[in-house]
């Protein structure tokens, strides 16, 4: 049980994507094959399904192009496109995928098809109804993200040992904040905790040194896709 007050979640945030005019459809920014750049499945060929729209505005966001636009697609047509890539790992991402109400149905259909499915989510929206077969990779937004107030702390009770919590760290203050949250919420007893340096804001080696110095039981990660391809869209 966490001790922080409940903060805005799905029903509290004005999410334009939740009122989609196309019943049963999902607005998609892109579907592409790449290598998983983060999390426990880093390095596996993975199809990414990027949903359009996000109610947050993190200062370091690298997918602003997904805030608007996109193409309305049925779940069937998304499944068809994913199948054409003939791979096992699927990541549903955004934007904030849970901001579209049909996202849950898509996740379940992907699991039913036999894929290993992960969901990348900001931690600002309710994850309690996400299919239990889906691996949730959930951010906790630090002060440096400028969106700390959007964290929905109630989500922590819906994570299991298969899930992962990710902190994107902008500076030492974020690092100390994350350490404090880990202790306060006993996060290491909950699931894997990932620490990532914010791209071009915090030097990876600096973060690595801090973690080693503290013998912190978190997993350091860099965004593999950015090491390989830089900030190129669709990678
Ligand atoms: S939650 Fe993700 S997609 Fe939304 S603004 Fe933050 S970094 Fe960008």
Tell me what you see in this structure.
This protein has 5 helices and 9 strands, in the order βββαβαβββαβαβα. With 235 residues, it is α/β, with parallel strands linked by helices. It has a single domain, classed as Aldolase class I (TIM Barrel), CATH 3.20.20.70. It has a 9-stranded mixed β-sheet. The radius of gyration is 17 Å and the shape is globular. The structure holds iron/sulfur cluster.
Mean pLDDT: 91
Mind telling me which CATH architecture this is?
Answer: Alpha-Beta Barrel
N-to-C SSE series? EEEHEHEEEHEHEH
User: What Rg, in angstroms, do the CA atoms define?
Assistant: 17 Å
* Uncertain stretches of 5 or more adjacent residues: 1-18
CATH class, please? Alpha Beta
Instruction: Tell me, briefly, the overall form.
Output: globular
Bound molecules: iron/sulfur cluster
Strand content: 15-25%
* SS elements, strand count: 9
Please bin the fraction of helical residues.
10-25%
Query: How many H/I helices?
Result: 5
Mind telling me the CATH superfamily name?
Answer: Aldolase class I
- Indicate the structural class: alpha/beta
For the terminal residues, how far apart are their CA atoms? 38 Å
CATH level 3 topology = TIM Barrel
Domain tally:
1
The largest sheet has its strands arranged as: 3-1-2-4-5-6-7-8-9
How does the major sheet shape up?
9 strands, mixed
Write the layout of secondary structure elements.
Blueprint: E1 25-35, E2 45-51, E3 71-74, H1 75-83, E4 89-93, H2 103-112, E5 116-121, E6 135-139, E7 164-169, H3 172-184, E8 192-197, H4 204-214, E9 219-220, H5 224-229
Parallel strand pairs: 2-4, 4-5, 5-6, 6-7, 7-8, 8-9
Antiparallel strand pairs: 1-2, 1-3
The chain binds iron/sulfur cluster.
Residues 54, 56-58, 61, 63, 94-96, 122 line the site of iron/sulfur cluster.
